[in-house]
Specification:
Helix content is 40%, strand content 13%. It has 5 helices and 3 strands; from the N terminus they run H-H-E-H-E-H-E-H. The protein has a 3-stranded parallel beta sheet with strand order 1-2-3. The longest helix is centred in the N-terminal third of the chain and has 13 residues. The protein is globular, with a radius of gyration of 12 Å.
Length: 112
């Protein structure tokens, strides 16, 4: 979930390259919730700065769904989500966007 279509496309290619199936994309929190309810993804990569709602709040909502998808938060701002915010959101991690290519996304987003 990211409001930048270029980033969504790059993230999708990165996730596909490590063997993860990209089931949907959204540019707003509202669209993300709608897609999540329809697709029931195992995981979500969420930008902290969404146009209609804070990505941390969206992560909290997604993490509370019955099937408990794994959530990883991301942002261009390295300080956008501290340890307390990550824990409260139910996200498994925060990864600074420039670090995504080197992050262990397969492990962070994989089901337990």
């Amino acid at each position: 979930m990211d409001d930048d279509p270029v980033f969504r496309e790059l993230a999708g290619r990165l996730l596909s390259a490590i063997g993860l199936n990209v089931a949907g994309e959204a540019d707003t929190a509202a669209e993300a919730m709608s897609i999540a309810m329809a697709v029931k993804p195992d995981a979500a990569l969420i930008d902290v700065e969404l146009p209609d709602e804070d990505g941390i709040e969206l992560a909290r909502k997604l993490s509370a769904l019955a099937w408990r998808p794994r959530v990883v938060l991301t942002s261009v701002d390295a300080d956008a989500a501290g340890p307390d915010a990550i824990r409260r959101s139910g996200a498994s991690a925060f990864v600074h966007k420039p670090e995504l290519p080197n992050a262990p996304l397969g492990r962070l987003l994989a089901a337990d």
